[in-house]
Write a structure and sequence with these properties.
seven-stranded mixed β-sheet; Aminopeptidase
């Protein structure tokens, strides 16, 4: 059954999302550049996107869509099994959709699935120090600030500090 027009659907991404995902990336390329690693041109191809969307035991991609258009995406990745049962979380929202609660809802869905379906014990996420909106999304979803990681990721070509958040299954 198709959702009512204009409603937001939160779901796992599939290989059928290649065109919509590529369009999302291209539409937000300039907007997201200050928040992401430098993206090479070959990352804006159907082949690269198809490989990213392919099922993988180390990551799960999720999307928020409205009228079949991707308006947010998130990845639960870097799964570590054994005694740790941990994964990392990253996400972005379309420039025109920021501040509407979409990331908060999408991350809420992922947190539930991470603990219930993936059997994880802990999820970790980092944000740029100045990205207060992203920090609020994590806090609204029960993540706790655990510290600062100096020069954590190379974002926009520069090693940048990140605030690290985590949430464990016991918080549910």
């Amino acid at each position: 059954m198709k959702p009512p027009p204009g409603s937001i659907v939160l779901r796992r991404a599939t290989i059928d999302d290649v065109d919509a995902y590529l369009e999302y990336m291209e539409r937000n390329r300039v907007f997201m550049a200050p928040f992401e690693p430098v993206r090479q041109d070959d990352m804006f191809t159907k082949e690269w996107v198809a490989a990213r969307l392919a099922p993988d035991h180390l990551r799960c991609l999720y999307v928020a869509t409205r009228n079949d258009r991707i308006i947010a995406q998130a990845m639960l990745g870097n799964f570590l099994r054994g005694a740790f049962q941990n994964a990392t979380l990253g996400y972005s929202v379309d420039e025109r959709e920021n501040g509407r609660g979409i990331a908060t809802a999408l991350i809420g869905r992922i947190v539930t699935e991470a603990f219930e379906d993936h059997g994880l014990h802990r999820i970790e996420a980092g944000t740029l120090v100045h990205n207060l909106a992203s920090q609020r999304v994590l806090q609204k979803n029960g993540f706790t600030r655990i510290g600062m990681s100096p020069r954590h990721l190379r974002i926009a070509g520069i090693w940048q500090d990140h605030v690290i958040y985590a949430r464990t299954a016991e918080r549910d």
